[in-house]
Amino acid sequence: MRRTLKLFIICLLAFAATAPAKAQKIAFVDMAYILKNLPQYETANEQLALVTKRWQKEIDAAQKEAEVLASNYRNEQIFLSQDLKTKREEEILAKEQEVLELKRKYFGPEGELFKKRESLIKPIQDEIYNAIQEIAQDKRYEVVKDKSADPTMIFMSTKLDISDQVLQKLGAK
C-alpha cells in the first residue's frame, strides 16, 4: 500500500513537471507616451493651467490685501485706541482666513482644481482604457501593464509595446 502511494506520488510529480505551463500573453503600454501624443490631453492641460493661474492670481491678490492690512496696522498701531486695534486685528485675521479658504476651495483635496481635472482628464483616461481593453481582447492579452509606471522593469521587447496601436485606435497617429 505504501509502495503504491509512493509510486502514485512520483507519477503525479513527474506529470506535473512535464505538463506544459500555460504562459500568459502580456503586453505593455507607455501611458506617458500615449498622453503626450493625444492633442485632447494637451488641450485639457492648457485649460487646467489657465484656471490654475486665474485662481492663483485671486489668492495672491487676497494675500497681498492681508499683507497691506497687517503692514498698515503695524505702522499705525501706536496711534490707535484699543477698540480700533481689536477691530483691525479682526480684519487682518478675517482676510487671512479668506486666503486660507480660497486655497482650500480651489486647491484642496476636494477643491475646484480636483473637480476640473476630473472633468477634463477622466474622459480621456476612459477612452484610453477602452482602447487598451479592445486591443487586449482582440489580441487575447491576459495582462497589459503600464511600463511608465513600473520602475522595476529592466528590459522589455518592443514587440510587446502596444502604445502605438492604442494611439491609432484613438485616432491620434
Helicity range of the residues?
over 70%
* Radius of gyration, CA atoms, in whole angstroms: 31 Å
Uncertain segments are none
Tell me, rounded to a whole number, the average pLDDT: 86
SS summary, helix count = 6
Strand content: under 5%
Strand order of the largest sheet: 1-2
- Structural classification: mainly alpha
Shape: elongated
**Amino- and carboxy-terminal Cα gap:** 68 Å
Query: Could you state the order of secondary-structure elements as H and E?
Result: HEHHHHEH
Quaternary structure classification: single chain
Task: Count up the domains.
Answer: 1
In total, the number of strands is 2
How many strands, which pairing sense, and closed or not: the largest β-sheet?
Answer: 2 strands, parallel
Describe this structure in words.
The chain is mainly α and 173 residues long. The protein has one domain. The protein has 6 helices and 2 strands; from the N terminus they run αβααααβα. It has helices at 2-18, 31-36, 39-76, 82-107, 112-139, 163-169; strands spanning 26-29, 143-146. Strands 1-2 form a two-stranded parallel ribbon. Helix 3 (39-76) packs antiparallel against helix 4 (82-107) and helix 3 (39-76) runs antiparallel to helix 5. The longest helix is centred in the N-terminal third of the chain and has 38 residues, at 39-76. It is elongated and about 100 Å long.
